[in-house]
Amino acid sequence: MMAPSGISPPSAGHTVGASALVSAAMPTEAEIRQVVSRVVAGLTTSSTPPSPAPGLRSEPGAKPSIAIGCDHGGFPLKERIGFRLKEQGYDVTDCGTHSAESVDYPDFAHSVAQKVSSGESTYGIIIDGAGIGSSITANKVPGVRAALCYDLSSARNSREHNHANVLTLGAGLVGTNLAQQIVETWLETPWAPGRHADRVAKITAIERIHLRSAT
């Protein structure tokens, strides 16, 4: 196994402790604070939530665009939720899958997350059997804050506190009626200002540090 970049492999007879490897691989507190300061300085005020990505601004009163996707386990629920969102006037982009035939959830989670990251869609909704794998996948895409929600409280919290822009659901964990209530609550809950926006700025700063180190 190759050693991570910047870390020399241990010489014979010498063992490197786990804490040493972590400290070498992770950015320092000073680096994080510097990036956080730049991110926060870029916000209009500390009480204003992050601005939408380019392409997300719409006419006053228009409903946001939503990218929706699923694997085979989430297909029936995705169809119901997508239909309901269209009935409510949302601009829905269906990223698949389009049947109950077995597929790999990362493919469709990635497709939805890319549309949100690029600004093509305002929000994303991804459904698989448990919702966990799709959340992990979506959060690998820069600019995405995906939250697995399983009740109305977690839906509100993910929006108010974490400014989530992608919702993931586990079709095997929530029924159709609860899932639709979660979606409606999630979409209707605004971002909270103040300390929550500042903390999300720190999440963005950490993301940028690791993107910079990868180039």
How would you describe this protein?
The two termini are 21 Å apart. This protein has a domain at 65-188: Ribose 5-phosphate Isomerase B, Chain: A, CATH 3.40.1400. The longest helix has 20 residues, at 195-214. The protein has helices at residues 18-25, 29-42, 75-87, 105-118, 132-138, 152-160, 176-188, 195-214, and strands at 65-70, 91-94, 123-128, 146-148, 166-170. The chain has 215 residues and is an alpha/beta fold. A five-stranded parallel sheet has the order 2-1-3-5-4, sandwiched between helices. Residues 1-25 and 43-58 have low confidence and may be disordered.
List the helices and strands and how they pair.
Elements: H1 18-25, H2 29-42, E1 65-70, H3 75-87, E2 91-94, H4 105-118, E3 123-128, H5 132-138, E4 146-148, H6 152-160, E5 166-170, H7 176-188, H8 195-214
Parallel strand pairs: 1-2, 1-3, 3-5, 4-5
Helix pairs in contact: 2-8, 3-7, 4-5, 6-7
